[in-house]
Amino acid sequence: MKLLVATRNKKKLGELARLLEGAGVEGVELLSIDDVDEYPERPEDGRTFEANALIKANDGADATGLPCLADDSGLSVDELNGMPGVLSARWSGGHGDDEANNTLLLGQLRDIPENRRGASFVSSVVLVVPGAGEVGDGVAPDSGDGDLVLSFHGEWRGRVLTEPRGDGGFGYDPLFVPREEDSRVKAGRDLDVAGDEPRTAAELPPEEKDAISHRGRALRQLVPELARLVKTMR
């Protein structure tokens, strides 16, 4: 089964590939936007992560006729009343300028003490399968008649540092320390392997990040549905 993943981000594609392999799901060929003919992409102007993911999944499914998976993710900072939120990728004005986004966020939080720097990474994942069923619960009916629409949500709690650390990941990963890392160091676990300082999301090995990240949590809910879909489309 060919599955279009509505992204040009190879790291997101690799994350899903690792999860499918780990779950033993075979028969899924992952395609990115760069692997199909160019098609019109509407602005991501939804007010929620789920709405933006649905826009992208619908565009891909409508243009190619393939099942299309899309996610919209971002950082929600407590002190900023949940912002950058759906504006995370373009917080500094342009789209996808990670360094500028991180610099702006650090400036906005410059005088905020450590105990008020709580934040969550949030991810909504939407799968649209043309002609395969009805719109699922919890998703706005913005798809073609008879399409199957499934939605999944993941959240990753942590805090924002005062300066970036780590070369892995992307986006705000170098600024985000997961709650799991603070708990690990406080409990004295794996200090000889993982170190005695809480790691940022950009310092975690990919497999560890997959296991606890917001997108990983949402995608793991998706995997059983993909496995069932593969069986029905053989």
UniProtKB/TrEMBL annotation:
Pyrophosphatase that catalyzes the hydrolysis of nucleoside triphosphates to their monophosphate derivatives, with a high preference for the non-canonical purine nucleotides XTP (xanthosine triphosphate), dITP (deoxyinosine triphosphate) and ITP. Seems to function as a house-cleaning enzyme that removes non-canonical purine nucleotides from the nucleotide pool, thus preventing their incorporation into DNA/RNA and avoiding chromosomal lesions. Belongs to the HAM1 NTPase family. InterPro entries: dITP/XTP_pyrophosphatase (IPR020922), ITPase-like_fam (IPR029001), RdgB/HAM1 (IPR002637). The keyword Hydrolase applies. The lineage of its organism: Bacteria, Bacillati, Actinomycetota, Actinomycetes, Mycobacteriales. Substrate binds at T7, R8, N9, K10, K11, K12, S73, F170, G171, Y172, D173, K209, H214, R215. It catalyses: XTP + H2O = XMP + diphosphate + H(+); ITP + H2O = IMP + diphosphate + H(+); dITP + H2O = dIMP + diphosphate + H(+). It comes from Corynebacterium hansenii. Keywords: Hydrolase, Magnesium, Metal-binding, Nucleotide metabolism, Nucleotide-binding. Its cofactor is Mg(2+). Binds 1 Mg(2+) ion per subunit. Homodimer. This is dITP/XTP pyrophosphatase. Its EC number is 3.6.1.66. Residues 188-213 are annotated as: Disordered. Coiled coil: none annotated. The active site is at D72. It is an enzyme of class 3 (hydrolase). One of its GO terms (molecular function) is hydrolase activity. Mg(2+) binds at D72.
